[in-house]
Design brief:
Phenylalanine Hydroxylase; 8% strand; 6 strands; four-stranded mixed beta sheet; alpha/beta; two-stranded parallel sheet
Length: 310
Amino acid sequence: MAPTETQFYPGMGLTTTKAPFIEVARSKGELYIEQPYELYSEENHEAWRQLYARIQERWQRYATEKFLEGVSKLCLDPHRVPRLEEVNRFLAPLTGFKAKAVTGYVPAYIFFDCLRHREFPTTITVRSLDSLDYIPEPDIFHDIAGHVPMHTDPRFADTLVRFGEAAHTAARLVREIKDEQLQLQRLVSIFRALARFFWFTIEFGLMRGKNGELKVYGSGLLSSYGEIAHAIESPEVQRYPIQLEWVINQHFEIHHYQPLLFIVDSFDHLFDLVDQLERWMLEGKLNNVAPGEPTMSEEDIKSFLEASLD
């Protein structure tokens, strides 16, 4: 039986997959919520503290300079789970972006459209102390410590907005197709291309530093103590200058370190690639990308077909 709101009490805990507050909100169909900060337990704060403390040296060694500048600008508390209102107080004046609390998975189009409006759907739960190395679900450390420092950089922020605009174009294109079978086939193919691009850039991207050395800007790497080093140092990883045709046709799997990563020259380069991605979409070049992961859920499909095209 799901807990009721009257059963919530300070320090109850917002641990990933074990948060009654989230269960209740989801049961009521809520996607966007307020961060109930008083519910964080001391274990939640300790998990944040350990995650934040142990990754500092690796950020200094492997992260792109823009990320390190972003961490400084956000003034994150190394000892306590961040309050989103405090994060936004520092973030919004820099790029207009803000972190927006959600109950969990956000259907694909809704997520991309949030980016178009300079909002970043942000998970508020924290992984448990016995799962610091990896959980398949996003948590607040991945979202705030991994993603949001990059949102302080104007060119990177503009790239996210541009990506959201490309997803908006995708929704418009597929909505114009009258044949339902063809519409679904095109939508799934375009979605794969968009999701793969986002994965190999925003989540797992590498970039050349000032002296030509490889640096990390992808949030999936920046929030992983083990994989951030593996991405740069391991001889098992294939690293190539990014080519759009490779990225959109390359499937990925989420449950292990990534064996293939792509390198961009700059955030200007990344922005231009999103422009190219949208042009290819309009030219039909995303209509039949290679099969394979990621799959598209019914929620994802519905989000595109019912999208508001304002």
